[in-house]
Design goal:
The protein has 1021 residues and is mainly beta.
């Protein structure tokens, strides 16, 4: 309490002071009672609200300006290109920013604290804990130190009245003469000394006041955790919101909604880090709700809802139709805006147009990606919104501009683009789209046209030889193109005539109109329409005044140098209703010279039946090229001869022969043989360049001839074996003389360009030409001796000049030495003991004693699954020394489809003469070989169906492939479709079965012991 010296006060003052002190005492007791009973009193529930920071709509019941109340608050979200990619949605700035407000006075309660005299320092107007005598109205400043409640620098919480009510003072000396004496606290604030509070007081009565104690509430700015959850999935994100001030009990935070996520941002709108959560919340649906919640002072969850609306309003254009034209420069703009979600924001409904006088509409009114104005002169339509309110689901308008558009003083012929702009209460922005079938926003356009149509001024705009095929401009000799200054409508062929250079006048049979405002399909050409680039390129050569193109088709082709006159014969009308009845324009020559060529004087002597080998298609050195044109070519044509694509082989000199005819002669200078492509170009001097042919001899329409300057040497082969002095054991081998197939050298052989005629072929000095057969290609020849050739060397001879190709090149001497050798045996190594063997082909003499003629081979068993025990047996008789078949299941002959066990008393080889390859002169075709199998283990022979591996030692089995060559055979390849388990091979060296795998190679002479596990099927070697 504050104490004053009693000597300075009267009796009545003392009585009044007693009453005052008693009242303070009662008040203090009441405060203590309330504070002491807080835990027993039911706390008020907290509240949570949201607000859209763009629309300033909140569900807080009594919001402060500029916020307005609505029970439902909508928000939208920003597309995240990393999640879905850009969808073309546009939202208004801040529309996805949401303010969250929590109100809970008891969530962070203030705590009363008392400061006594020891911690009270008068730093102005007194000393220590005493305020000095002063003049009424003077002030004193007091610093409070040593606080015991709250964190460091905790401020005073509550109102000024709270502090006054809890402050006790007394007069020096303890007298009670306090009548009329009162100490008023007039302010409290933070000092600069470590944040200790300061109190400033006003002294009403001149006296010394002792400051007994001062009680006040203290607090710090509190925080609370906010949870944002989606109704689309079981996920949520949390972050921390802060109290708006000391002891206010109001907590605020801002979040930004981004597709599939939430980001906490600071109050000024700058992005900040999300605290206490991942940020991932499923909000990418067009509609839905977010639930926002926090725990209040009683630990109860308080919630509020935020509705999502990502669909923009729909802007429907009523008038003017996009792409239309009118003479009225104050056209009525009308349309309807509808919104089924959050409702319309009425003051955001606008109509804007580009008022710049750029006739071809070079700049759009808005950037459709952002909604920002781009045109230098954008005007806005004044729209009456009387009776409409925010939240309406539909709004219609129909207004005309207050002044003419665009801003141009002369006769107008301008394309003006415009747009309807609207937004909903969630902040989604919508722009009117003139063509929803095309990608992106297509801005509507209207042409303000007060100019009559006509031909463009420059004759070069109008050319013969050009037509429209529905998608692009093409060359057509029966058509011409003219440029027109405006878009046209209701055009008929009878509206025009065409006067030829000959003086005759014709009416076109067909007319095609291509307007700037319409393409060939009737769709508008708009700023973002991909057709614009095509149309602009089309108009570019026609000059700035061209707005449309006319293509006239006539019955007959124009002459290459014709320059007709196109005339208007009837009224033509543009899209705006302007009309014209007179006018003509000269059409310039746009047709390139028509070129033809003939080839002659080559050395080719062949007939067309096999190939183009006449003198107009084949030469060994020179060929003449004759060129004609249907119009004058002042500089003469240019001739290029290509040996390959883009590879110029020759540019022969062109000689004028008169009457638009020229000749050029190609001469080979050691060039490589092969096809040659011809390309002729001719310029009529008017910018029309005619071309015939190309650099590609495979391209249709390209003139082609063949250069064959030498006779290739043939590749000679015997029995399929090529090379120098081949050897064969076939007594009637197939001999092939091949001028076609290229064989690498040295020397390289084959590759003859043209067909070949053989006049004489000799074998051992005998003329065999009548027996040599030519293939259908005229480049390969076959000879098979009618009788067996004797063993030894034989010579095949094609002498100098005995062969000539169709280009007239003669052969040089070609000789082949062929050696017929005695056929060799197939030799298999045999170990003492048991050996498992097979033969890749049938023995020439299949008798078991002919094949196994070594006396040391005393037993032979052949696998035959069709007999009991599955083996046929033959044992060598000790008297006759012959292999004698067993009484039952005896083995008498040897064949390739059978596998054998051979028991030997020595290490002597089995040498068997086997049937070789099928001879060309064979009387019967080769058969299909099969090996039958049974369930369980089978002994399967290894057969070479080509019979090429039937002499010499055992070797890896290969199979022939199409076109020649071979491929190795593996176990799985050999067994084919057979379903099998284990596969073994017998090794006589180690006297053991060896397990094989699918990829192991198969060798001739081997036996595969195969476990058949599925349905037995034959093996096809």
């Amino acid at each position: 309490m504050w104490v004053r010296n009693a000597d300075a006060r009267g009796t009545e003052a003392v009585k009044l002071s007693v009453k005052w002190l008693a009242g303070l005492a009662v008040l203090v007791l009441a405060i203590v009672a309330v504070v002491g009973s807080t835990s027993a009193t039911k706390a008020a529930a907290g509240k949570i609200y949201v607000a859209n920071e763009w629309s300033k709509i909140t569900n807080e019941p009594t919001p402060a300006d500029p916020y307005t109340f609505s029970s439902t608050v909508y928000s939208t979200f920003e597309d995240d290109p990393l999640v879905q990619g850009s969808s073309g949605r546009i939202i208004l700035p801040g529309a996805n920013v949401v303010k969250i407000v929590m109100i809970d006075a008891e969530l962070n309660p203030s705590v009363p604290t008392t400061v006594t005299g020891a911690n009270i320092t008068v730093i102005a107007g007194g000393t220590g804990d005493t305020i000095a005598t002063g003049i009424p109205g003077d002030t004193a400043t007091i610093e409070l130190t040593g606080r015991t409640v709250g964190a460091a620098n905790s401020p005073i919480a509550g109102t000024l009245a709270d502090v006054v009510a809890n402050t006790v003072v007394s007069v020096d000396g303890g007298t009670t003469n306090l009548i009329g004496n009162q100490l008023d606290i007039i302010s409290f604030f933070e000092g600069s000394d470590a944040g200790d509070p300061w109190i400033k007081v006003e002294i009403n009565v001149a006296a010394n006041y002792l400051l007994n104690h001062i009680t006040y509430d203290t607090s710090i700015v509190g925080t609370t955790e906010v949870t944002v959850a989606s109704d689309l999935e079981n996920s949520n994100v949390t972050f921390i919101a802060s109290e708006t001030g000391i002891g206010t009990g109001r907590y605020e935070g801002f979040i930004q909604l981004i597709e599939n996520g939430v980001t906490k941002i600071s109050g000024d709108g700058s992005t900040g880090a999300l605290t206490g959560g991942t940020g991932a919340v499923d909000i990418f649906a067009g509609t839905g709700q977010l639930t926002l919640s926090f725990k209040d002072n009683a630990n109860n969850t308080q919630e509020t809802l935020l509705s999502l609306d990502s669909a923009p309003p729909t802007n429907t254009i009523t008038a003017p139709a996009s792409g239309s034209a009118t003479q009225d420069d104050t056209p009525i703009f009308s349309g309807t805006v509808s919104e089924s979600g959050s409702g319309l924001k009425i003051d955001e409904i606008k109509v804007k147009w580009d008022n710049t006088a750029d006739a071809n509409n070079s700049g759009p009114v808005v950037n459709v990606a952002t909604g920002n104005n781009l045109a230098s002169d954008v005007q806005e339509l004044s729209i009456s919104t009387s009776g409409a309110v925010d939240g309406d689901t539909a709004f219609s308008f129909s207004e005309d501009p207050s002044s003419p558009i665009p801003d141009f003083s002369g006769d107008k012929d301008h394309i003006v683009d415009w747009v309807i702009v609207s937004a909903d209460l969630a902040g989604n922005l919508a722009l009117s789209d003139a063509d929803s079938g095309k990608s992106g926003i297509q801005l509507p356009t209207i042409q303000i046209d007060e100019v009559d149509p006509g031909f463009t001024d420059t004759a070069a705009d109008h050319k013969t030889g050009l037509a429209w095929d529905g998608t692009k401009e093409v060359v057509a000799r029966n058509s011409l193109r003219v440029g027109v200054t405006d878009d046209l409508t209701n055009i008929q062929t009878s509206d025009f005539t065409i006067k030829l250079d000959s003086g005759s006048t014709i009416v076109p049979t067909r007319v095609t109109v291509l307007n700037k405002l319409e393409d060939s399909d009737g769709d508008p050409f708009n700023i973002d329409d991909s057709d614009d680039a095509t149309f602009d390129e089309l108009l570019k050569p026609l000059g700035a005044s061209a707005k449309a193109v006319l293509y006239f088709e006539v019955s007959n082709d124009f002459l290459s140098d014709d320059t007709p006159l196109a005339s208007i014969q009837d009224t033509i009308t543009d899209l705006a209703g302007n009309s014209e009845t007179l006018g003509d324009r000269e059409v310039s020559d746009g047709i390139a010279p028509s070129i033809t060529i003939t080839l002659s004087d080559g050395s080719g002597t062949g007939a067309v039946s096999l190939a183009d080998e006449g003198p107009d298609k084949l030469t060994k050195d020179t060929i003449k090229i004759t060129i004609t044109s249907d119009e004058s070519v002042p500089a003469g044509p240019v001739v290029k001869v290509y040996s390959a694509v883009s590879n110029v082989d020759d540019t022969p000199q062109v000689l004028a022969e008169g009457s638009n005819t020229w000749t050029a002669t190609f001469t080979s200078e050691g060039d490589a043989d092969g096809k040659r492509a011809i390309e002729i170009t001719a310029d009529d001097g008017k910018g029309n360049n005619g071309t015939l042919g190309s650099d590609d001899n495979e391209k249709a329409g390209t003139p082609v001839f063949t250069l064959d300057s030498s006779m290739a040497a043939p590749s000679l082969s015997v029995g399929g074996a090529a090379g120098v002095d081949p050897k064969t054991d076939q007594t009637r081998p197939s001999i092939i003389i091949d001028y076609k197939t290229v064989v690498t050298g040295p020397p390289a052989k084959g590759g003859e360009v043209s067909t070949v005629t053989l006049s004489k072929v000799q074998l051992d000095g005998t003329d065999i030409t009548p027996d040599v057969i030519a293939a259908s290609d005229g480049k390969r020849f076959f000879y098979i001796p009618p009788t067996d050739l004797t063993l030894g060397e034989h010579t095949l001879l094609i002498d100098d000049g005995d062969a000539i190709d169709a280009a007239g090149n003669e052969s040089t001497k070609q000789e082949l030495k062929v050696t017929i050798e005695e056929r060799k045996t197939f030799d298999l190594d045999i170990f003492a003991g048991w050996n498992a063997i097979s033969f890749p082909s049938d023995p020439v003499d299949p008798d078991v004693n002919s094949v196994f003629d070594n006396a040391g081979h005393d037993a032979v068993l052949g696998f035959d699954p069709s007999v009991d025990g599955q083996w046929l047996v033959s044992i060598r008789d000790s008297v006759s020394q012959l292999l004698e078949p067993a009484t039952e299941n005896g083995l008498t002959s040897v064949k390739s489809t059978q596998a054998y066990w051979v028991h030997s008393l020595n290490f002597e080889q089995v040498k068997a003469l086997l049937v070789g390859e099928v001879l060309p002169a064979s009387g019967s075709p080769p058969g299909i070989i099969t090996i039958q199998t049974v369930l369980g283990f089978n002994a399967i022979a290894v057969i070479d169906t080509s019979r090429k591996l039937t002499t010499g030692a055992s070797t890896a089995l290969v199979r022939q492939v199409v076109g020649g060559g071979t491929t190795p055979v593996k176990v799985s390849d050999y067994l084919g479709k057979l379903t099998f388990g284990r596969v073994y091979r017998w090794d006589p060296e180690i006297l053991s079965f060896v397990l094989l795998v699918d990829t192991d190679p198969v060798n001739t002479g081997d036996v595969l012991f195969v476990e058949v596990t599925g349905t037995p099927v034959p093996v096809f070697p």
